Amino acid sequence: MLKKIEHIGIAVKNLNNSNELFKKLFGKEHYKVEAVASEGVSTSFFMLGETKIELLEATNDNSAIAKFIEKKGEGIHHIAYEVDNLDEEMVRLKQEGFELINLKPKDGADNKRICFLHPKTTNGVLVELCEEKK
Ligand code: ZN
């Protein structure tokens, strides 16, 4: 079961500039910056109530974020839903016909195990499933 929106990922060209911009918008600072080397991204997180906003900047030209910005420009990149048991959800959603981008859970930012669903099977929305690492 998908429990709630854990965070919304926004692709940005320049993390420092966007941290300033979103600080003005939200009236608060981001609470962490974290690089995910395997994904070629640098991220920052803002907490808004129960939901986080994740800003993502590409750290190399091959990163999915660099490609996304090249194609579509800056903007909403993915919506992440919290799950209790990622492995079970991956099996369930695959059986339901969704295409998993990651066949095995991988490490994401903010102490999560994650898996993405291909947007072609989710009405064009890149969906991230995330489970808090125990
Ligand atoms: Zn995310």
In short:
This protein is an alpha+beta fold and about 130 residues long. It has helices spanning about 15-25, 65-70, 85-95, and strands spanning about 5-10, 30-35, 40-50, 50-60, 75-80, 105-110, 110-115, 125-130. It has an eight-stranded mixed β-sheet with strand order 2-3-4-1-5-8-7-6.
Bound molecules: zinc ion
Average pLDDT, rounded to a whole number, is: 96
Across the major sheet, the strand order is 2-3-4-1-5-8-7-6
Beta-strand portion reads 35-45%
How many helix segments? 3
Oligomeric status of the shown chains? single chain
Instruction: Give the % helix.
Output: 10-25%
Report the major sheet: 8 strands, mixed
State the end-to-end distance.
18 Å
Helices and strands: which structural class? alpha+beta
User: Order of helices and strands, N to C?
Assistant: EHEEEHEHEEE
Q: Compute the number of strand runs.
A: 8
Sequence-ordered SSE layout with sheet pairings:
Layout: E1 4-12, H1 15-26, E2 32-36, E3 41-48, E4 51-58, H2 64-72, E5 75-82, H3 86-95, E6 106-108, E7 112-117, E8 127-132
Parallel strand pairs: 1-4, 5-8
Antiparallel strand pairs: 1-5, 2-3, 3-4, 6-7, 7-8
Structure overview:
The protein is 23% helix and 40% strand. The chain is of the alpha+beta class. It is globular and about 40 Å long. The chain starts with a strand and ends with a strand. The relative contact order is 0.20. The model has no long low-confidence stretch (mean pLDDT 96). The site of zinc ion has 6 residues, from β1 and β5. Zinc ion (ZN) binds next to β1 and β5.
